[in-house]
Amino acid sequence: MLAAVRSAALVGIDAYDVIVEVDAAQGLPQWTIVGLAASAVKESRERVGAALVNSGFKVPPRRITVNLAPADIRKEGTAFDLPIAIGILVATGQLESAVVAERMFVGELGLDGALRTMRGALSIARHALRTRVATLILPAPNVAEASRVSALALCAPSTLADLVRELRAGTLTRAVEVSVASTRNGDGTDFADVVGQQGAKRALEVAAAGGHNVLLIGPPGAGKTMLARRLPTILPPLTEEEALEVIAIHSVAGVLSRSDVSEGARPFRAPHHSISCAGLIGGGSLPRPGEVSLAHHGVLFLDEMLEFPRHVLDGLRQPMEDAKVVIARASQAVTYPARFTLIGASNPCPCGRAADPLGVCNCSATDIERYNARISGPLADRIDMHVTVGAVALRDLSGASNGDSSPSIRTRVERARAIQRRRFALKPGISCNAYAIGRWLDANTPVHAEARTLLHTAAERLGLSARGYHRVLKVARTIADLDDVKEVAPAHVAEALRYRPLSRTAPIPTTTANSP
Q1: Which domains does the chain have, with CATH numbers?
Q2: Cα–Cα distance for residue pair 341/323, rounded to 1 Å
Q3: Cα separation of 128 and 130, whole Å?
Q4: DSSP letter for each residue of 284-329
Q5: How far is CA 237 from CA 31, 306, 504, in A?
Q6: Cβ distance 136 to 82 under 8 Å?
Q7: Can you tell me the distance from the alpha carbon of 109 to that of 85, in angstroms, rounded to the nearest whole number?
Q8: What are the pLDDT digits (tens) for 17-53?
Q9: Which residues on neighbouring strands pair with residue 385, listed in sequence order?
Q10: pLDDT at residue 504 in the model
């Protein structure tokens, strides 16, 4: 007898239909799984066999063949356990074939028949809704993310036996949808905790308002990490579509927690400098999202940025430009979104004391030049803002904070982002100035004549590339949005220019963190 059960698999963060065909024929007892199944899928025969027996069902001594169609695409993961088990029950006459019609089955099975969590539930749920599946049957731990697709009926039995009992009775219990509440700044971090550093705070406000990349340069203990970790507290909340993309990526990567689903906050990723290129960008023999994709619509913080291997840092160049990562393999190419705000933190020299008025730097000019050369010119050119963070005097640390709180800064950031959303309303995929096409923004941005002259003169003296020129204009446009003015003024261009490095060999800007 032949059975066909509908399921789904993942390519990147997208899902596609997989039909699990099961044939239970007369012959020597054996199981065969075909259809380009990976090792984890082939091992399902042991899990499914034990789950069926321990759930009280029979596994007749027949020649069982399982085909995962389409057979020319590689199948990975453990989510095929449940559809294979249901297919065997239908093929052996223990379950009517009509009960699987218009239903999709996904989930891993334990040896006792319990349904266990899987990766990519949200992507599969979105695909099921698009393809008009009546009910998606999946493990209970995945209901929180799958229920973000509110129009789709979900069923989440705890065990295989419970599922078969409900299928036979014709009364599937609908899983309760999870209401998602957004909470912000739950760890108590606030920009008001930072003493001094008014220039750095201003730079991060501009970065948050326009989605710009920032490199913080300063001696150890100046507060670079403290500032960077507070950037998410002033970012606007995720939109519904952005939240779905973030949850889908984290689910596919297998790092999604229940709090990630319930909070809906922008991601903040801070990988260690020993990370590999595949870990940062994505890849592996079985492609997985890297840190740049896990930071999608959020912040990628690289502490001690110049300690990262240069070839790893250079891997950031394409994702920063294209907002996506394409991982090509012989059989297929997988695309992961990667639209993030890069925040780098670095010392000015190997010992870290070059910019510290209280310290003595023993590094030679050659050492400093070699150290700064760890970040390539093309990558440095893609970083919109280079900011020096000066050391705070010890006597000032015990004083009260003299800066705005995160909620007040976020209010200004959200107002500027609202202006940008209206500006790019007819540009799909562009939500802020940093993502805009430079030539389009240049042609459609009102710039005061004196500001245009200042920009051209500075571009020639600083030797800016075309990309650098447009990035200065984008930063100036963001500063004007924060001031709620339509025309970019000379003061806006002047502030944007202060965030550009003087030269390639000395990526330390003229501004300091304590300057207004």
Answers
A1: 2-169 (3.30.230.10), 191-395+404-498 (3.40.50.300)
A2: 10
A3: 5
A4: TTTTEE-HHHHTTTSEEEETTGGGS-HHHHHTTHHHHHHSEEEEE-
A5: 50, 31, 36
A6: no
A7: 9
A8: 999 999 999 888 899 999 989 888 999 999 999 999 9
A9: 214
A10: 46
Nearest C-alpha neighbor of 264 from the set 190, 319, 325, 186: 186
Q: Length of the chain, please?
A: 516
- Count how many Cα atoms sit within 13 Å of the Cα of residue 47 in the half-sphere of its side chain: 23
Banded model confidence at residue 301, pLDDT cuts 50, 70, 90:
very high
CA distances (Å), 322 to each of 51, 123, 126, 335, 337, in order?
46, 22, 25, 11, 9
Helix H segments across 4-79? 39-42, 44-54
In which band, very low, low, confident or very high, does the pLDDT at 3 lie, cut at 50, 70 and 90? very high
Alpha-carbon dihedral of residues 458, 459, 463, 465, nearest 10 degrees?
Answer: 160
Per-residue pLDDT of 340-379, as tens digits, reads 999 999 998 888 887 667 678 888 888 888 898 889 989 9
pLDDT grade, residue 428 (50/70/90)? confident
Q: Residue 205 is which amino acid?
A: E
